[in-house]
Amino acid sequence: MRHLMSPLDFSVEELDTLLALASDIEKNPEKYAHACAGKKLATLFYEPSTRTRLSHEAAMLNLGGSVLGFSSADSSSASKGESVSDTIRTISCYADIAAMRHPKEGAPMVACKHASIPVINAGDGGHQHPTQTLTDLLTIKSLKGHLNNMTIGLCGDLKFGRTVHSLIHALVRYEGIQFVLISPEELRLPSYIRQDVLDKHQIPYKEVVRLEDALPELDILYMTRVQKERFFNEEDYVRMKDFYILDKKKMQLAPKDMHVLHPLPRVNEISVEVDDDPRAAYFKQVQYGVYVRMALILTLLDIHVD
Ligand code: NCD
């Protein structure tokens, strides 16, 4: 049985297959409409979510399956003190596959050790968010046609942003990738990722504070929200929250074929005036998130459609 805890749980070849399946689903949705008939997905969300929970649910419904779950710890027995391991043993009796989001790093990993069904990590604290990474890879591949030879700017909260951490882990396995890490000093990418991932793979990168300095050389700009819920005090958050605001004026500095991605939710970091720019790809990215999760559910359930 397979789980998805980190993007590295799939080899590059397996990822290629999964992304190709997602693209086929995009082109021929009717072919997959009953592939999961009789199967159930449980969404176990101990932290707020709009896209991740609902896109997993939409994915299972699009495949002809059904869904059950809870959307906050308060409405589950976690509020009575039940452990993640007892909860997943219970859910294994009700569903065929589960997606779990939890504020504690490693909670989905604990769950998968006690589960008799595949478990998907739908975000664990500031650690990893592998299904967002699958979404990001599909978006980049669909828009650019490839995942090699690119300069990728990662901007915002690189310290607490789990989407960025997972995306870096995944992208360093492709040829010719370089990063521009754009953040205030306080929100730099943690040194364990700089050393253990970027340096270890000899990936060229530079760190800059000003977005304007990075924009002209980027193929992809990946904006992120300052992760309010992971700050230790409100004061620091307030100081950081509007550090970056991408607007029309800054977009003039960017190449014509650069794409702007954002895992969403956005707060202030992308001005709504950018939404009409053809380079704004963050709502397309939301749609790709459904196709890729359909492909993921089929893969983890080992269901093949001819
Ligand atoms: C992200 C997350 O939850 O980490 N959202 C998402 O899943 N699309 C990003 C964020 O909350 O800022």
Q: In a few lines, what is going on in this structure?
A:
With 306 residues, the chain is α/β, with parallel strands linked by helices.
Explain how this protein is built.
The protein is an alpha/beta fold and 306 residues long. Strands 7-6-5-8-9 form a five-stranded parallel sheet. Strands 2-1-3-4 form a four-stranded parallel sheet, with helices on both faces. The longest helix is centred in the last third of the chain and has 19 residues. The site of N-carbamoyl-L-aspartate (NCD) has 11 residues, from α2 and α6.
Q: Layout of helices and strands, plus pairs?
A:
Layout: H1 12-27, E1 40-45, H2 51-62, E2 66-70, H3 84-91, E3 97-102, H4 107-114, E4 119-124, H5 130-144, E5 150-155, H6 162-171, E6 177-182, H7 191-199, E7 205-208, H8 211-214, E8 220-223, H9 234-240, H10 248-251, E9 259-261, H11 282-300
N-carbamoyl-L-aspartate is lined by residues 51-52, 123, 129, 132, 162-163, 225, 263-265.
From the N-terminal CA to the C-terminal CA, the straight-line distance is 22 Å
Bound ligands, named by name, code or SMILES = N-carbamoyl-L-aspartate
Write out the strand line-up for the largest beta sheet, numbering strands in chain order. Answer: 7-6-5-8-9
**What does the oligomeric state look like here?**
single chain
Give the class from helix and strand content and strand pairing: alpha/beta
Residue share in helix: 25-40%
Features:
306 residues; globular; 15% strand; 4-stranded parallel sheet; alpha/beta; binds N-carbamoyl-L-aspartate; 11 helices; 9 strands
